[in-house]
Amino acid sequence: MKARLLTVGNKMPNWVESGFNDYFKRIQPMLSTELVELTPAKRAKNPSSANLAQYREQEGSAILSAHASASREQLWVLDVKGKMLSTEALADKLADAMLQGDDIALVIGGADGVSPEVLANADFKWSLSALTLPHPLVRVVLMEQLYRAMSINHNHPYHRGN
Fold first, then answer.
1. 68 in a structural domain
2. b vs e for 141-156, b when ≥16 Cβ sit within 10 Å of the residue's Cβ?
């Protein structure tokens, strides 16, 4: 199984690169992972709501194009309105995808969210939290949770759940 993180945005702060890379290196023996950074839409200084929809559509097209290049890849979209999972439930969901022989693409949208087209194509809509999190932090949290879930599936002592 392979996981691709399709993220809108680049040029992350050093603390994000450091935290992300730490878990990225750790997870590789358990889950082949790839980071695909997509260029965000160029934003106006004072955007209108029409501009915001346009940005989501432009970034959504890039996300769907990146996803279309892979076969047998489930599309999991991070969305505040998505389903929340415990770490153990995430481990089960990853194990199920592995049993089905599917890869997964995890989408971190742009600053203005993801387009309706991306949400419509999602196989799973996942919420990390009811809190609004900054996108750089989401990269680190997502990588850590994937690592934690895979450590459960591989009986690694990293996760110390109940």
1. yes
2. bbbbbbbbbbbbbeee
**161 part of a folded domain:** no
| Residue 160 covered by a domain | no
Whose CA is closest to 62, among 93, 103, 108? 108
Counting the structural domains of the chain, the total is 1
pTM of the model: 0.91
Q: Give a yes or no: residue 21 inside a domain.
A: yes
| β-sheet bridge partners, residue 36 | 6
Domain holding 17, by residue range, is 2-153
Contacts with 153 (C-beta within 8 Å, 6 or more apart), sequence order: 30, 91, 94, 95
Q: What is the pLDDT along the chain (162 residues), one digit of tens a residue?
A: 999 999 999 889 999 999 999 999 999 999 999 999 999 998 878 877 888 889 999 999 999 999 976 678 999 999 999 999 999 999 999 999 999 999 999 999 998 899 999 999 999 999 999 998 888 999 999 999 999 999 999 998 787 665
CATH number at residue 97: 3.40.1280.10
